Amino acid sequence: MIVSHRWRLHTPCEAVDFGVVPVDSINTKVVALVNYSRDSVLSFQWHTQGLFRNMEEFSITPESGTLYPGTHQMILFRLHCIEGKSGGPSWKMYM
What we know:
This protein is 0% helix and 47% strand. It is built from no helices and nine strands. The protein has strands at residues 2-4, 9-11, 15-17, 25-35, 42-45, 58-61, 64-67, 72-81, 92-94.
């Protein structure tokens, strides 16, 4: 779980565990970012360059956004295990 007391941003986990992802399959996880602040507008942007050799293997939607006080955003993490490109059957991404 990541909780930033300064910015009052909350996520339910520190890592997105995709488990074992069979070759030629897609595993998707959803994580909620929550802005518990009463007066701070927060912006986020994911930096995924260099995480994988082939960027078709991994995506985050939305890649960036703004959270107004008291709002949340569902973040979709998608891992596509492509034969001969992924380098292994499973991956972990740390936030």
